[in-house]
Amino acid sequence: MTRPRAPGPPLSATGDPSGSQRGAAGPIRISLHAPGFPTTTEPDPPFPPTSILNAPQDPVANLTLVQAINLALVQEMERDDRVIILGEDVGPNGGVFRVTEGLHKRFGGHRVVDTPLAESGIIGTSIGLAMAGLRPVPEIQFDGFLGPAYDQLCSHAARMRTRTRSAFTVPLTVRVPVGGGIHAPELHSDSPEAIYAHQPGLKVVMPASPYDAKGLLISAIRDPDPVLFFEPKRIYRAFREEVPEDEYTIPIGKARVVAEGEEMTMVSWGASVVQCMQAIEKSGRSIELIDLRTIWPLDTETILESVRKTGRVVIVHEAPKSGGWGAEIATRITEHCFLHLEAPPQRVAGFDTIMPYYKLEMEYMPDAARIAKAIDETAAY
Amino acid sequence: MQGQRPRDEGQRAKWTITDLRTSLLPSRFMSSTASAHSDSRSGGGAAPEAAGNPAAASANGAAADPSGRPAARATERTEAAPAASLAAELPDDVLLGWLRDMLLIREFEVRTMQAYQEKKIGGFCHVYIGQEAVAVGCTAAIERRDPMVTAYRDHGHALARGMDPRHCMAEMFGRIGGCAKGKGGSMHMFDKANNLFGGHGIVGAQTPLGAGLAFATKYEDEVIEGRRSDRVTLCFLGDGALNQGAFHEAKNLAGLLDLPVIFVVENNGYSMGTSISRGTTMGHDISVKAAGYGIEAAVIDGMDVMTVYDAMKPLVDRCRATSRPAFVDMRTYRYKGHSMSDPRKYRTRAEEEQYEASDPIGRLAAWLESSRGFSKQRYDELAREVRQQVRDCVKWAEASPEPPIEELYTDVYVERFGPYLGTSPPQMLRDGADEA
Question: Is A186 in the same domain as A71?
Fold first, then answer.
């Protein structure tokens, strides 16, 4: 019942213009862009991948956030051959931010799959892969490009466990560079964490340091639920941190107390944590800084415990203020710690506008000065 | 027929199968389709479905299909048709199994409509009546290990794939006995044991999933197990999904990555209330939508289960062998509306009757009668058996317990109830107490 084709060569069984004998006897092949499926008998390449890391060979390396993520990917792909990477230019090009640099060479085109720029298709295909038991780690190039994949994430990934009573799950980790600070235009500088935290069924993670990035990403890949792994691109290469070369995990859903303090609590996540540290240092006050690490599920208990101690709280994030994740945190604090509060919870956040073009970018994002002002006001209330 | 458009009983074809109250089954299945089918089997060069398929007749003659959609062009199909029918070679029990499956789907859907109108089924409900040959024929052409994924009109696929109809019915009733403890409902039939990856509610959004499933089978076989992959994925979609972006992304990926997935477009001519000619460019020949992606296309008469099998089996075998995607324009018709609340003002009763006259159940029964000595008595027995089975399904579903309030918070994340302080777990709802 094949439909005869109009002029031109008849549609071959494979439809492959190269006329390759796919499916014929011989080596197993798939045309996943580059060299095809390698035989599984190839010897293992050396590990750790010194060429990727540019890092010393001690048990602890001084890594940037990008390198830490790269290391986590390498180790997870080594550990589990069900982990595969998909995305635009993630292959030989190493991804738009070079996060997957070297992976294609190391693992081959069948595990580091270059895809067309088609976010809905990338995420939808990844969901199919995950439902069938693989552990895909797709990369979406920029925060603003998540829009086309929103349907797949919220209509499928988030709901599959519920609508199948856990018979099918979606162990998917979507890596997305987020946030501003790199002189990019809008759609390349957004902070969409609250949008996805609002969708039950998704987990949302955002590391603020190389150490956390590695441990959280490994947890995310091993997590049986879909995780949005938001990488603050402003601090991709902003600083280095000691990162163990051994595998380790950081639990999803637990915040980290970065610095202990008595006078005030400060809650933040992602790149803003760095600004908070600077502001706290300048203020000279005893401020307890909490890095959420995971946006959802939210570690409410750690926040409440701190606020019960300090009675004052400042929340800092890059995303627009109204309806931002800070609103949820402030609400929980007032719900559960009302009588402990000495001052109203304050939010320092982006404005309720579209992320501006780069000349005004730094005005838009909370900086140390704006945070310092909030600290002073809250302390003086 | 409350809630449906009033029908003039007198105008009905005698063996129309759509009566809600009495039997859904043809009282007389012998019809002209019998000879039509044997014609097609003999490959005599005449339009195989000319007698049985009004749409095909319209393609040959001048009469336009009221939906604006000519059927598979007879000349093409005759040229490409296999010399002998594969289905006609199959043993009696297989073909009787198909007949039984189609009867089961038909009866099941009639009882589903009834239960919906009695408000026993909530949500929305899209029945498969008229399209039975597609699910049954396609399922017969693949193996159980082959993944299958479909859209929201999914009861037929679930039953054809082998889901216990009691679980299917209980799912729609929202009961614990459902295939997903009543958490998915009508549009979300999943069956892990039978490799059915759902039922999906967003039009076209399941198509990248189909590509992903095909990718996964190939990856598992070739990379993890180190053997040649020979699994094929069937991804069903409606003709309305042709217009969704996700489908084009899926086709592109499948073509690009050599994924063994067959996109079966159940082309029933209508995307809800919009006929394909009003909603889709090249609606008269959607197979061209595969050519742009370098994907093989086939046009199949989906109103005849033997034809479906005859065309799908070689296609499936080819996809298995070559690990390439394919696209099928499966011409079919839904006798009922898009959903239970559809007044069907966009088409005429005459058009519906035209299709009902080429009913897939009647066609197979007639062929079995003429070629295999299948008797009316045996048919009635089968119909009675199926009717009883579905009646028992409804009883079973009704007896299944309703979900307890704890189910609100299960199956959201891997963690049960989780550490989600302040998000109103059911205990809070019940006790009104907040321990935080």
Answer: yes
The ipTM value here is 0.81
Q: Do A373 and A264 reside in the same domain of the chain? A: yes
Residues A158, A305 share a domain: no
Are B211 and A124 a contacting pair at CB < 8 A? yes
Q: Are B31 and B47 a contacting pair, CB within 8 Å?
A: no
Domain assignment present for residue A24? The answer is no
Chain A residues with CB inside 8 Å of B258's CB?
Answer: 14, 16, 22, 30-32
Q: What CA–CA distance (Å, rounded) separates B50 from B57?
A: 5
pLDDT in tens, B375-385: 999 999 999 99
Q: Mean pLDDT across the stretch B338-344?
A: 88
Domain contains A123:
yes
Beta bridge partners of B261: B233
Separation between Cα atoms, residue B98 and residue B78, nearest integer Å:
24
**Mutating which of A39, A107, A163, A198 best tests the B interface, going by the most B Cβ atoms within 10 A?**
A163
A215 and A282 fall within a common domain: no
Closest Cα in chain A, distance from residue B5 (Å): 33
Residue where a domain stops, chosen among A194, A215, A244: A244
B420 CB near a chain A CB, below 8 Å? yes
Is A17 a domain residue? no
Q: Which of B267, B245, B272, B248 is nearest to B346 (CA)?
A: B272
What is the C-alpha separation between B419 and B425, in angstroms, rounded?
10
The CATH classification number of B2-386 equals 3.40.50.970
Burial of B41 (0-12, 13-18, 19+ CB in 10 A): buried
- Please identify among residues 308-327 of chain B the ones whose CB lies closer than 8 Å to any CB of chain A: 310-311, 315, 318, 321-324
Same domain, A240 and A260: no
B291/A125 Cβ within 8 A: no
CATH of the domain at A292: 3.40.50.920
pLDDT band at A67 (very low <50, low <70, confident <90, very high): very high
- Identify the residue with better confidence: A302 or B24: A302
Q: Is the dihedral of CA B179, B180, B181, B185 positive or negative?
A: negative
Q: A129: which chain B residues are within 8 Å (Cβ-Cβ)?
A: 212-213, 215-216, 219
Q: pLDDT by residue (tens digit) across B26-62?
A: 443 433 333 334 433 333 333 333 333 333 333 333 3
User: What's the total number of domains in chain A?
Assistant: 2
On the 0-12 / 13-18 / 19+ scale of CB atoms within 10 A, A149 is buried
Residue with tokens 């302040």: B422
Q: Which of A224, A244, A264 is the last residue of a domain?
A: A244
Between A346-360, B50-64, B192-206, B245-259, the lowest mean confidence (pLDDT) is in B50-64
Question: Domain of A342?
Answer: 256-379
Any alpha helices (H) in B220-304, and if so which ranges?
245-257, 276-279, 288-291
The alpha carbon dihedral of B174, B179, B181, B186 has a sign of: negative
Are A206 and A230 contained in the same domain? yes
How far is A284 from A288, CA to CA, in rounded Å? 12
* pLDDT for A74 beyond 60: yes
pLDDT confidence of residue B84: 76
Q: Is the pTM of this model over 0.95?
A: no
Kindly tell me if the per-residue pLDDT of A252 is higher than 60.
Answer: yes
> How far is Cα B245 from Cα A120, in angstroms, rounded to an integer?
8
CA B358 from chain centre, in angstroms, equals: 17
User: In this structure, is residue A1 part of a structural domain?
Assistant: no
The whole-chain average pLDDT of chain A stands at 87
A216 with A312, same domain: the answer is no
Judge if A57 and A163 occupy the same domain: yes
What CATH number is given to the structural domain containing A172?
Answer: 3.40.50.970
Residue B30: exposure state from Cβ atoms within 10 A (0-12, 13-18, ≥19): middle
Contact between residue A120 and residue A148 where contact means Cβ atoms under 8 Å apart: yes
